[in-house]
Design brief:
Number of helices: 35
Structural class: mainly alpha
Radius of gyration: 28 Å
Strand content: under 5%
Strand order of the largest sheet: 1-2
C-alpha cells in the first residue's frame, strides 16, 4: 500500500526538501558544482581514505579512519581484494541463525512450502472439495460470507497444525531472511568490497523474487553464484547465472526446447495409455488398478484426475510444442555482456536461444509438492518416477540445473559470424566464450563498473583503459577493478562525494556511521522497501539503476528523511543507536559534533546554514506502514489471494510489530543527527 501523508505534512516536508536538496533535485552537473568549492583541490590523505570507504564499501564506522591511517591505504585496498584473508567472524555471527543461507534448494522446497498447494495435495488435490474445485464455482457462490470465512478459518487452523507438527515455515521468510543477511553483512562485514560487488552483480544479473519459483532459488543464487564469484572471473559468473535455476526460471529458459524435441517418456505402452486418456476412451480395468495403486487413489479420485488430464491435455500439448524461448538469449547479450549497442542482430538472438535449449531444471516447481510428499511418504517414489520419465540424471535433486539432450536443438548455429557445432551443452558454453571475449562486452562491463565506482558519466578514456584490463585478463574482476582504483579519475576531486547513494547504500551507511546495533528486522527491511529498493524486487531484468537521476526526486528524498529521523530517534524496531557522544550545551555545538563524527568535518556552507535554521523548527514526525505485498504467500502463478487467506501465521499488518516505537534519547540530539543523515551531504558519496 502506498504511503499516505497529510496535506500539512506534505507541505512541511516539501519546504524542508526544497531548502536542503534544491541542488540535488536539479540532477545536473551545474548543481553538483554548486555543492563543491569553486576550485577543487587534490584530495588529502584522509579524504582518500574516506573516498575508499564510501566507494569500495558502505561508508566508514567510528574508528575506521584511524585504523587505515595506521595500516596504509594501499594495504587496506589490497586486503579487500582478498576477502578470504580477512577475519569476518563478527559478521558471520550476525547471520548464523539464518538457516536459509545454508540450505539446498530441495530442502527449502520441503521446509518452506506453498501453503495453498500443500493443503490441496494433502486433501487429495481438493478435487472432492467444492470450495477448492475451480470447476465448481456455483457451489462456492451459494455460500454466505460467514460460511466462507469459517471455511478459511478452518483451513488456516489445518495449516497451522501441519506447520507445527512438521516444523514447516512460511515461504515469505525466505526473502526476509536473505534480505536480512545482505543488510547485516553490508553493515558489519570487514569484507566491504566483496559486499559491494555482491550488490553490483546481483543487479547486473537481476532476477525478480515475485516470479513463480524464483524466491525459493534465491538463497542458492546468492551463495553459490553471486557471492562465490563476486571477485573472481566474469566467465564463471556468466556460466553460473546461465545455469542457475533462478535465472532459468526468471527468463523462462528452463522451458525453451527444440521444436523437434522428444518430450516425455517414449515408452509405447505409456503413449497408448495417454492417447486413450486424451480421447476419453475407458481404460482397461488392469490399467485402472495399476494407476490406483501407484498414485494411492480411490475410483472417484482417479476419475477426477483423468477428467482433469483430458481438460489440460490440449494446453499441455501446446506448451510442449511452444519451442524455443528467446528471453534469456536477448538479455544475455543486451544486459549481461555486449550491451544494447553490442552489434548483434535478431538472427543472433535466435541462434543463441537455440544453443541454450535443454538447459533446464529438475522439478522446477518443487515448492508445490515437496512438503506434501514428505508428509505422505511418497517423495522418493514420485521423484524417481518423474526423473525416469523426463530423463533427469539420478544424482540431480529437485530444483537443480541439468542439461536435457532430448530438448536440445542439435543443429549448427552461427552467432556473431562464428559457427557453433560443439554439440549438447557445449553449444551454450561456446556462446558464453564468444560473448566474454567480445570487445563490446569488455566496454559494457567497464562502463558499468566505472559508473559504480567513479562517476555517473565516466570519461571514454577511463572506460577504454578499464575495458582493456578486462579484455587482456580474460574477464578477471580483480584486475579490472584495479584499473579503476589506480586511475587518476578515481581520486579526482570532482568525483569526491559526487555520487548519490542508493537506498540500500543509505540505509547501510547510516547504520555504520552511527555504529548502530541492528538485527535487520522486518521493519528495517520495510523501510528499505519504502525508500524504493526492496532487494530482489526489481521486476525488469535491468536491475536497479545506479545514477543520481534515478534516485533523486521529492518523494524519494522524503522517504529518506523519514528513515533518518526514525533511526536517530530510536523508533525503528530492530535498530538502536547511542547518540550520547553528540550531546552539548546548545544546538550549534551538537551540530558541530555531528558533522565532525558523521561527515569528518566536511559540509557545504549552504547545508550548514539550512540545518541551523531547521534545528529551530519542530522535527517532522516519522511514519511507517509496511508496503502491501504477497511475500508471505504464493507467487502470482499460484493464486496468492487464496493462499494469503490460508497462511497459518499471517500477522495483522496493523499490529504493534508494524508500528514505530516511541522516541528515545535526547530530542535535541536526535533532531540534529536525523537532519544531518537526511542532508544532501550525507546522501552523497
Amino acid at each position: 500500500m502506498k504511503q499516505q501523508y497529510s496535506p500539512i505534512r506534505k507541505l512541511t516536508v516539501f519546504v524542508l526538501m526544497l531548502a536542503m536538496f534544491s541542488p540535488l533535485l536539479t540532477a545536473s552537473a551545474r548543481a553538483q558544482e554548486m555543492m563543491r568549492p569553486a576550485k577543487a583541490k587534490a584530495l588529502t590523505a584522509d579524504q582518500k581514505i574516506l573516498h575508499v570507504f564510501n566507494r569500495l564499501g558502505f561508508g566508514a564506522r567510528p574508528g575506521d579512519l584511524e585504523k587505515v591511517r595506521a595500516m596504509g591505504l594501499d594495504k587496506y585496498i589490497e586486503g579487500q581484494f582478498n576477502p578470504g584473508s580477512i577475519d569476518d567472524r563478527a559478521a558471520e555471527a550476525r547471520v548464523r541463525n539464518l538457516d536459509i543461507l545454508n540450505m539446498e534448494t530441495s530442502e527449502i522446497f520441503a521446509k518452506y512450502p506453498n501453503p495453498g498447494a500443500l493443503l490441496r495435495m494433502l486433501e487429495g488435490n481438493g478435487r472432492n472439495n467444492p470450495a477448492q474445485n475451480r470447476n465448481a464455482p456455483a457451489a462456492t457462490d451459494e455460500k454466505s460470507e460467514q460460511d466462507q470465512q469459517a471455511e478459511r478459518r478452518e483451513r488456516r487452523q489445518k495449516l497451522a497444525k501441519i506447520y507445527q507438527e512438521y516444523n514447516l515455515r512460511p515461504a515469505g521468510q525466505i526473502l526476509r531472511d536473505l534480505t536480512a543477511s545482505r543488510v547485516l553483512r553490508a553493515v558489519y562485514s570487514e569484507r566491504q568490497l566483496e559486499e559491494q560487488m555482491v550488490d553490483f552483480w546481483t543487479n547486473h544479473f537481476n532476477v525478480f523474487a515475485g516470479k513463480g519459483a524464483v524466491r525459493w532459488y534465491l538463497p542458492s543464487y546468492d551463495r553459490d553464484v553471486i557471492r562465490k564469484n563476486a571477485l573472481g572471473n566474469f566467465r564463471d559468473l556468466l556460466v553460473g547465472t546461465a545455469q542457475h535455476p533462478a535465472m532459468l526460471f526468471y527468463l523462462d529458459n528452463f522451458q525453451s526446447v527444440s521444436p523437434d524435441a522428444q518430450i516425455g517418456n517414449n515408452n509405447r505402452r505409456n503413449n497408448r495409455v495417454q492417447q486413450m486418456i486424451q480421447s476419453g476412451q475407458p481404460l482397461p480395468q488392469r490399467v485402472r488398478q495399476q494407476l490406483k495403486e501407484r498414485f494411492n487413489l480411490t475410483d472417484a479420485e482417479l476419475d477426477a484426475r483423468l477428467k482433469q488430464m483430458r481438460q489440460q491435455g490440449v494446453a499441455n500439448n501446446q506448451r510442449q510444442r511452444r519451442g524455443i524461448n528467446e528471453n534469456y538469449a536477448r538479455e544475455v547479450m543486451e544486459l549481461h555482456t555486449l550491451g544494447v549497442d553490442g552489434g548483434y542482430t535478431q538472427k543472433d538472438i535466435q541462434e543463441v536461444a537455440r544453443a541454450f535449449t535443454g538447459w533446464t531444471i529438475a522439478d522446477p516447481r518443487g515448492y508445490r509438492s515437496a512438503a506434501a510428499n514428505m508428509i505422505k511418504g511418497t517423495e522418493d517414489r514420485r521423484a524417481n518416477r518423474a526423473a525416469l520419465q523426463l530423463g533427469i540424471p539420478e544424482n540431480i535433486d529437485s530444483g537443480e540445473f541439468y542439461f536435457n539432450p532430448r530438448l536440445h536443438d542439435g543443429g549448427e548455429k552461427t552467432v556473431l559470424g562464428r559457427k557453433i557445432n560443439e554439440g549438447g551443452i557445449k553449444d551454450g558454453l561456446k556462446v558464453i566464450d564468444i560473448l566474454v571475449s567480445n570487445p563490446a562486452t569488455a566496454r559494457f562491463i567497464a562502463r558499468k563498473l566505472a559508473v559504480k565506482f567513479v562517476s555517473d558519466n565516466p570519461s571514454e578514456a577511463l572506460v577504454g583503459r578499464v575495458a582493456d584490463a578486462f579484455h587482456k585478463s580474460n574477464g578477471d574482476i580483480k584486475t579490472t577493478l584495479r584499473a579503476i582504483f589506480t586511475s587518476e579519475e578515481f581520486f579526482a576531486p570532482e568525483n569526491y562525494r559526487a555520487k548519490i547513494k542508493t537506498p540500500f547504500e543509505l540505509l547501510v551507511s547510516s547504520f555504520r556511521a552511527l555504529d548502530a546495533d541492528t538485527n535487520a528486522s522486518p521493519m528495517v527491511i520495510g523501510l528499505l522497501q519504502k525508500m524504493g529498493e526492496p532487494l530482489y524486487g526489481y521486476q525488469a531484468p535491468t536491475g536497479y539503476p545506479d545514477t543520481a537521476e534515478d534516485w533523486v526526486n521529492t518523494g524519494a528524498l522524503l522517504e529518506r528523511m523519514n528513515f533518518a529521523v526514525a533511526l536517530s530517534s530510536n523508533r525503528i524496531r530492530g535498530a538502536r543507536v547511542d547518540l550520547k557522544k553528540f550531546e552539548a550545551t546548545d544546538s550549534e555545538e551538537i551540530l558541530s559534533k555531528a558533522i565532525n563524527n558523521i561527515l569528518s568535518g566536511e559540509i557545504a556552507p549552504n547545508t550548514r546554514t539550512t540545518l541551523l535554521k531547521q534545528i529551530e523548527k519542530p522535527l517532522i514526525e516519522p511514519t511507517y506502514s509496511p508496503v502491501e505485498n504477497n511475500d508471505d504467500d504464493a507467487p502470482a502463478a499460484d493464486n496468492p489471494a487464496a493462499d494469503a487467506m490460508m497462511m497459518p501465521d499471517r500477522r495483522d499488518r496493523r499490529g504493534r510489530a508494524n508500528q514505530l516505537l516511541q522516541p528515545s534519547g535526547n530530542p535535541e540530539v536526535f533532531k540534529v543527527v536525523g537532519l544531518l543523515l537526511g542532508s544532501p551531504d550525507f546522501q552523497r558519496q
